[in-house]
Amino acid sequence: MSDRAADLISRAHEAHVVVAGGGVAGLVAALECAKVGIRVTVIEASDRLGGSIRTEEIDGLAVDLVADGFALGAPALDTLIDELGLRDAVEPAAGDAIAVAVGSPDALRVARLPVGLAGIPANPWSDDARRIIGWRGAWRAYLDRLRPPLTIGREQSLGALVRTRMGVRVRDRLVAPLAFGRFGVDVDDVDADLAVPGLSTALTRAGSLAGAISQLLPDGPAPSRATLRGGMGRLVDALAGRLADLEVEIRTGARVAGLHRDDVGWTVRIENAAPDAAASAPDADSVAQASDPDATGAPDAAASAPDADSRATPASAPDATVAPDPDATPTGQVIADVVIIATDGDAAASLLASAGISVAAPASRQRDVVTLVVDAPAATATATATATAVAPTSSAPSNASPATTSAAPATVYAAPAIASAASGIRAAAVEDATASWPHLAAAAGPRRILRVQLEAPADPSRPGPFPPSAPASDGAQRAHSATTGALANTTSPSPSPSPSTSPPELVAQARRAASALLGAEVGEPRAAAHRRVMLAPPASVIGHAERTAAARAAIAGRGGLVAVGAWLAGGGIAPVVADTVDEVEKVRARILFGR
Asked: What is the pTM of this model?
């Protein structure tokens, strides 16, 4: 061995990195450090790893409660999947047909989304488009071809661009439901050129928005989204197993409470997390979207594969962690050369404040994600005509050219007004997971798995865990009994139930919402599960890049401190993995080469 190689190995072994947060960002950060020999400690506040990735057994099925897939073709994520030996488990989506729900609760119209990108139709005269925007909307959209080209530079907002070129109905009924349903953002706050890459050039070339979309559509059908057979929890299991092999210390049920820098390094103050806080505190990737093509968002692990052995998260087992850190002091402090903050935005801002760094976390929207297992006939009957599957092109809200057809849409997104509390429906989206994933359809047989996103109430303490003494109905109580505790594992900040809205009522609300958006009555659920999540805004939100750059500039000024996660990378597993790998490469370069 050369002196140079020996020196690099020595530097790696002498360094100590502490990672705050055990979501996907934290686990990937730990892996990138540990595989070059750096000593790593991961601190996770909850009693499990994975953040928004959580696979539970519901009615005998391994079901992802929030994040259920990822974007195909993302280089960093593809490399990680291959490195973890999961390539054979990757399953492309069988269908990604999208529908939108518009109108009022008393006159709800649900129709498939026309071929286009980000909800912008390539042909506003198509039958699919006219079912949603009507003849009046189609005529207004036609004026797009008569107007002079409008550059993206003059109209940065996607919502403003669509409204100006094609009218209010296209904006509100086709484009807005996707931005709101997937990410909880107003379409006026989305950067058009980031949501649809190449739109500026195509618009100038084609002279119309519809013409630009036609030019940008992919040539042929191709799946753009995939999952892992047995559940996305397999990704967390594989990461945790690899970290155990690399002797990474993983502490669950503990949280990083403060940071202090001195001549020795970073002093990391660690406290035991209270049981309720540990269950509810979101980590780096509990900001996700249930139906986001990349989130898998955004818009959710210890029980992921069909067999019992693969459902155990290796790193959370008693023998998965190494001996206590020799640098730990009796006061619960650990000395680190580098601290990687991989929590959600609010927790990261709090930790950074303890180190004298002020950053602002982006605003996020909370949602209750309720997963229902129902008998198939009621769930699959729909008033919607044969749906056209669409392929998202980026982590921003999008839809693309036809891929496959199915008897019902895989996902229905509601216009923002439908999801409001005043509507009585309160649902932003309903996804039929069995329509998306062949392995789930095969395992479910005559059942369907519906994932319903409900707008969370303003009070963050509502709702709490399912109170077994106060069932809303016999069906809801039966659903609770079948979850094996899944309903109690929420990301709600408070463990106590609200007197007016309990999880049994959430199940009832989710059932009513699914019935309304699918166009047919959904029967009593066989089983159900609930998690509360925060949606991470996508990277295509206007100002996101500037906020991320400002936050990282402030953090870099202290040295030995790094922040990763969806609040910086944007919602979705693929961008989080890519951003984390890039940031940790800088950490490794500083440790190994002093630069």
From this structure: 0.81
